[in-house]
Write a structure and sequence with these properties.
By secondary structure, the chain is an all-alpha fold. The chain has a domain at about 1-25. It is about 60% helix and about 0% strand. It contains three helices and no strands.
Length: about 80
């Protein structure tokens, strides 16, 4: 009986240690460091923005224009009817 109790206590202890390590790992992943002023110029370059392929930008622009044209999306003439007069 004592062997079973010791085994159960060992399992509980290991579970508690693993849970504590998991919480510590999750908490250490959070960071509050901001972008330094001298890094802003580097991060503002066009090649540093997310996405980036020309085809993806074209497709995204086409979808945006199709959805927003009726409300004057990109200051193009026309409306949702498809005419650009």
């Amino acid at each position: 009986m004592t062997r079973r109790v010791n085994r159960r206590a060992l399992i509980v202890r290991c579970a508690c240690v693993l849970a504590a390590l998991g919480c510590a790992a999750a908490a250490s992943g959070c960071s509050t460091l901001g972008v330094k002023p001298w890094q802003r110029g580097i991060l503002a370059r066009a090649d540093m923005r997310p996405g980036g392929s020309a085809m993806d930008d074209f497709i995204d622009g086409h979808i945006y224009f199709a959805k927003e044209a009726s409300s004057g999306g990109r200051s193009f003439a026309g409306g949702g009817c498809g005419c650009n007069d």
